[in-house]
């Protein structure tokens, strides 16, 4: 059953309780070659998208027609809304397929609607939105553009990174995926600039003027339309070159985030940051032959399963650690929430245990959990882009560390969580530490130095996103 038939069947149930208003922006005197139907974000009136629509039509040299809805429909109302918008497009001279675009949470609606059989939709355009987890770019039935700004405070750049990394995997298998399902992050642009609406709660301050933002948005959107429609009368090579450059720009912009994310989220299931923490706890001042081994444990693993004592293999010392990575529960895949771990529960080997196995080495004082967490900030700042460092310094929202809380038992430590306190003064971090140097007969607990660690990726989210929001005294209740 096609979409227009579905709409006809739905009208009887919906017309009494839902009246959709659509608005058209078009050229006059020429038949449009491309058409876009635009769904607004839920809390933004459709009228806020008129300037974007006008800019897109003007910069297309009048080859584009845009119809935008006044309000965001529900998924049940969507067939009627789409049919009405489509009829506007047809009445104004466009006889081909249309691109269905949406902003913010409207993107989930557009993406869901795009999976229905339709001979009217050419492709999907997600402004500051993304396919939710469980849907994949390479299996989506239509060409789909994901495009947002790196100063988007509602659709975090760290959420778009997940989608871009998916695309990188697809491109490795098929380079044309960067044209069929491009993922573009534009530097200096925020969430509100798609809707000409300033002061959106949680959004970050843009560094690009509204006029320039429209130009950049048009550049990639129009290139996607040309490349997708594949009209031999159009310069498809030039359109693909724009998307290719967008891919490269995005790859460069996201590379620091991707590198730091991989410290704890990787196919090897190894927390490389915990290995660094273990080295800081051992703090050997002389070279020793040692292998540091880590694995990420299941959250339900027992202590006996989690930790192994250090031991020698021939001349090499093998030091074990385990890490449980914890995240904020986010079943709805909300991009406004942090995408980084809330903490790393790191079970590590104490310095005293290592001293017993290597008598010839010298050691400094073992690092505290607070020391290790401070080192995470230093490390991540050094990995951040020059632009991110500049923004962070201007925000004047530092990370401040509280003294470690010392747990008296492992169970007490295991029940503790890393304190993350967000306010307009910055981010305050407090760790819990458990130390024991007495091996137990059952080998389950002993000679350990355990920490609730700050994830380097959480630090990077603070530098790239949250410090900029808190520095501007934005509402904070969506952070956890």
Describe this structure in words.
The protein has 480 residues and is an alpha/beta fold. The chain has two domains: 3-261, Rossmann fold (3-Layer(aba) Sandwich), CATH 3.40.50.1820; 272-471, no CATH class. The chain has helices at 3-14, 50-59, 78-91, 106-114, 157-173, 177-180, 210-229, 236-261, 272-282, 303-306, 351-355, 369-383, 386-395, 410-415, 456-471, and strands at 22-25, 34-39, 64-69, 98-103, 121-127, 144-149, 183-186, 290-296, 311-313, 316-326, 343-347, 399-401, 405-406, 419-423, 426-430, 432-436, 448-453. The strands form three sheets. A seven-stranded mixed β-sheet has the order 1-3-2-4-5-6-7, sandwiched between helices. Strands 8, 9, 10, 11, 13, 16 and 17 form a seven-stranded mixed β-sheet that branches. The two termini are 44 Å apart. GO terms for molecular function: hydrolase activity. Residues 36-170 form the Alpha/beta hydrolase fold-5 domain. Residues 1-19 form the signal peptide. It comes from Mytilus coruscus.
């Amino acid at each position: 059953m096609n979409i227009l038939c579905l709409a006809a069947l739905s009208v009887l149930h919906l017309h009494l309780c839902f009246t959709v208003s659509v608005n058209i922006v078009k050229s006059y005197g020429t038949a449009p070659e491309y058409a876009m139907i635009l769904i607004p974000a839920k809390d933004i009136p459709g009228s806020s998208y008129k300037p974007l629509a006008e800019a897109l039509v003007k910069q297309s040299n009048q080859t584009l027609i845009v119809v935008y809805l006044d309000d965001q429909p529900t998924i049940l109302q969507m067939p009627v809304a789409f049919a009405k918008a489509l009829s506007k497009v047809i009445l104004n001279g466009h006889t081909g397929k249309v691109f269905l675009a949406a902003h913010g949470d409207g993107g989930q609606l557009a993406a869901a609607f795009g999976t229905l059989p339709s001979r009217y939709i050419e492709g999907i355009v997600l402004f500051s939105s993304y396919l939710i987890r469980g849907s994949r770019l390479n299996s989506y039935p239509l060409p789909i553009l994901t495009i947002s700004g790196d100063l988007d405070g509602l659709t975090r750049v760290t959420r778009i990174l997940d989608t871009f990394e998916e695309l990188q995997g697809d491109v490795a298998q098929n380079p044309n995926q960067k044209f069929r399902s491009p993922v573009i992050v534009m530097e200096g642009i925020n969430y509100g600039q798609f809707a000409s609406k300033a002061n959106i709660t949680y959004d970050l301050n843009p560094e690009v003027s509204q006029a320039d933002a429209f130009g950049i948005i048009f550049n990639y959107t129009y290139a996607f339309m040309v490349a997708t429609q594949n009209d031999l009368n159009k310069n498809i090579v030039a359109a693909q070159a724009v998307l290719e450059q967008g891919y490269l720009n995005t790859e460069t912009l996201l590379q620091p985030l991707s590198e730091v994310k991989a410290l704890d989220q990787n196919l090897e299931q190894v927390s490389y940051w915990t290995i660094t923490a273990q080295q800081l706890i051992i703090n050997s001042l002389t070279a020793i032959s040692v292998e540091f081994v880590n694995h990420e444990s299941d959250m339900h693993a027992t202590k006996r399963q989690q930790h192994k004592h250090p031991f020698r293999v021939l001349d090499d010392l093998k030091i074990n650690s385990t890490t449980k990575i914890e995240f904020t529960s986010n079943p709805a895949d909300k991009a406004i929430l942090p995408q980084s771990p809330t903490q790393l529960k790191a079970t590590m080997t104490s310095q005293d245990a290592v001293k017993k196995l290597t008598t010839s080495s010298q050691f400094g004082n073992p690092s505290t959990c607070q020391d290790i967490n401070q080192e995470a900030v230093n490390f991540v700042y050094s990995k951040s882009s020059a632009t991110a460092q500049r923004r962070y310094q201007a925000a004047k929202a530092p990370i401040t560390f509280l003294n470690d809380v010392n747990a008296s038992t492992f169970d007490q430590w295991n029940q503790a969580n890393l304190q993350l306190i967000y306010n307009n003064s910055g981010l305050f971090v407090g760790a819990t530490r458990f130390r024991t140097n007495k091996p137990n007969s059952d080998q389950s607990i002993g000679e350990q130095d355990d920490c609730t660690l700050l994830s380097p990726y959480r630090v990077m989210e603070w530098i790239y996103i949250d410090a900029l929001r808190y520095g501007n005294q934005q509402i904070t209740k969506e952070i956890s």
